[in-house]
Predict the structure.
Amino acid sequence: MNDTLRIAHADGVATLTFDRPDTLNALNEAMAVELCARLERLTQDRAVRAIVLTGAGRAFMAGGDVEAMRAALELPTARRTRAIGKLVRHAQLAVATIARSPKPVLASVNGVAAGFGLALVAACDVAIAADDAVFTSAYNRLGTTPDGGASFTLPRLLGARVAAQWLYLDERHTAADALRVGLVNWVVPAAELASATRERAARLAALSPVAFSHTKHLIADAPRRTLDAQLLAEQRGFLNCTSQPDFREGSRAFAERRAPDFVARATIEDHNS
């Protein structure tokens, strides 16, 4: 691994920090490759109960590394396509890994989230932002189409018309705007972002891993199903959960009027059971 990302573990929470502050954490090939590898490991790590993504310095992530892509334009066509293609493929793979992760992934947005940074926020399960955070798509300004699943996630989160405005016009949106349209779940004072992130991450880490995994995929798969198919999927998920140790613990904790202590671990395949 290289030094484009920092990782920290505490109480079942793994925090990945984008660490190219001099470039506002712009995504280059090295960071994209490392992000994919780290996410894949963390989703399989039984000691990890929740994952946090955040940025060092003044930005969450200011999109792809434009200077690196400009340099690639000077290469012969085949090499240019390979260089830029590798960056985009790994960016897409990172989003796909988040989508299938059985562990909750929380975006903690400090400063700018642009381009792929915006897409990454939309891809996470939940998001918290500092009150001075700024969001923009930046794609049309560069003459490119969206990546990182932004054309998939933003219409579902914001609605088609609002997503079109965000993706077409490259306007700068405040944290309050992001909260109003549903891109983020919480906005807190910038000085409180780190502590508020820890508190939310701890709550996510305390969830039943099996129940979370099923619920995440029920939400994700619902738009592709009829009501009858969704009801059947809910029934299967519920019955699978009740066969797990977490349900025994949860029902006992409910009767004893205490917080449950879930210990079961989910895998990516659990929601298909």
Summary: The two ends are 34 Å apart (CA to CA). The longest strand covers residues 5-10. Residues 124 and 162 are 19 Å apart (CA to CA).
